[in-house]
Write a structure and sequence with these properties.
Elements (H helix, E strand, L loop, with lengths): L3 E2 L6 H7 L5 E3 L1 H9 L9 H15 L3 E4 L7 H13 L4 E5 L16 H14 L6 E6 L2 H18 L5 E4 L3 H8 L7 E4 L7 H5 L5 E3 L1 H23 L4
Parallel strand pairs: 1-8, 2-3, 3-4, 4-5, 5-6, 6-7, 7-8
Helix pairs in contact: 4-5
Length: about 240
């Protein structure tokens, strides 16, 4: 079960240096930024992600959380994604309720509830042989509202899902969610600047996935390196 602050990285070197038993999230969004220079996880195909993830798993032997995005297509694609990433060594698989291809900075659209539940069932079946835990990620609250969010959570729990990620909340919505009886089974992913890590920690969710702050730190480090090269080589900006 996921607990605490979940490190977000695609760096084998960082994973090795952490020397921690804490699972790490291999973010498709971060992979797109670092390999393509674009903040759009939907530009990373299933095969591209699988290849990178497989290498990372072999090189680090860490407990990894795979990013299944929106299943990379239909129910069969979700089944295949779970099977391939489970075989590659993933212990957990995040599957979001966006329409495929998933986007990062904004939500283009969300799957209908029935369709998403079937996607989750397909992923569970695909990862069964590898004891892969599917963690649905609900990030369409701005599209379908709080009541529908709760409905989706309740259905997923009835299906036997152990933990669920909720993303793109504002402070009032998080306060409402905190009062729900199932809150101990909820993790919060920070995909934008609506909430920061410090204030979310005060609500004490079971786990937090700080994607936005990780991206900000990564880009800040790159900017510092850029400024260093400009200074040392006397380049014109």
């Amino acid at each position: 079960m996921l607990k605490g602050i979940i490190p977000v990285t695609i760096s084998a070197n960082l994973i090795k240096n952490l020397e921690s038993d804490q699972p790490l999230f291999v973010s498709g969004r971060l992979l797109a930024i670092m390999t393509l220079g674009k903040d759009n996880e939907g530009l990373i195909t299933r095969r591209e992600y699988l290849q990178y993830f497989s290498t990372l798993s072999i090189e680090t032997e860490a407990t990894l959380i795979a990013d299944g995005q929106s299943g990379f297509g239909n129910e069969l694609s979700a089944w295949t994604t779970a099977k391939e990433l489970g075989n590659a060594g993933a212990r957990y698989l995040v599957l979001n309720d966006q329409k495929w291809p998933a986007t990062s900075t904004e939500i283009a659209g969300t799957l209908a509830k029935k369709i998403f539940m079937n996607m989750v069932k397909a992923a569970v079946a695909g990862g069964k042989d590898y004891d892969l835990q599917i963690i649905p990620k609900l990030e369409g609250i701005t599209k379908y509202g709080y009541a529908e969010l709760i409905s989706r959570i309740e259905l997923l729990l009835k299906m036997g899902i152990k933990q669920i990620i909720v993303a793109r909340l504002n402070r009032n919505e998080l306060a409402q969610l905190k009062a729900e009886k199932f809150f101990p089974k909820i993790g919060i992913e920070l995909d934008n600047m609506a909430l920061d890590l410090i204030e979310v920690k005060n609500f004490k969710p079971t786990f937090i996935v700080p994607v936005e702050s990780t991206i900000a730190s990564t880009l800040s480090a790159e900017q510092q390196l850029y400024e260093f090269y400009i200074k040392e080589n006397n380049y014109e900006k």
